[in-house]
Amino acid sequence: MKLYLLRHGHAVSALEAKVASDAQRPLSGQGLQDVGRMARFLADRGTAPAVILHSPLKRAAQSAAEAARAWPSPPPTEPFEPLSNTLGPEDLLARFLERTAGLSEVLAVGHQPQLGEFAQFLTGASFGLRPGGVIALETGDGKARRLWAFNPEDLL
């Protein structure tokens, strides 16, 4: 399976957004732009995720919705609690394999440090993943190899 790990775009602070909790923080305008640009990059490369799984936190849900618009036939978006930055890599892998069995391409939208730790667990290499950045992996047998990784500023 090809797995694309997308970190949500830049979000405003809870104070600036006037929201009560971190979970409600929305994307900034720059965050929306970065996610849209990264998703168009994915679509232009011929990717075709069967589903976009995302953390239920607002900034990740907004990132998933923005990303879906990059494809002519937008893939469905689905909240996936394991991406809420609370599980370690082994538990995330178990839940991920259960949900994605039989799929050939998946886009997962979540948070740091979880996505970076997950990629490191799968590949044995560490990655710097900035807001709006993506890591492409090819997975099999609980391991993976990195295909490529980009942060938003790499696409300017």
Compact description:
The protein contains 5 helices and 6 strands; from the N terminus they run E-H-H-E-H-E-H-E-H-E-E. With 156 residues, the protein is an alpha/beta fold. The mean pLDDT is 96.
What's the structural blueprint in terms of helices and strands?
Elements: E1 2-7, H1 14-17, H2 29-44, E2 51-54, H3 58-68, E3 77-79, H4 89-100, E4 105-110, H5 114-123, E5 134-140, E6 143-150
Parallel strand pairs: 1-4, 2-3, 2-4
Antiparallel strand pairs: 1-5, 5-6
Helix pairs in contact: 2-3, 4-5
Q: Any overview of this molecule?
A:
The protein has 156 residues and is an alpha/beta fold. It has one domain: Phosphoglycerate mutase-like (Rossmann fold, 3-Layer(aba) Sandwich), CATH 3.40.50.1240. Helices cover 34% and strands 22% of the residues. It contains 5 helices and 6 strands, in the order E-H-H-E-H-E-H-E-H-E-E. Helix 2 packs across helix 3 and helix 4 packs across helix 5. The mean pLDDT is 96.
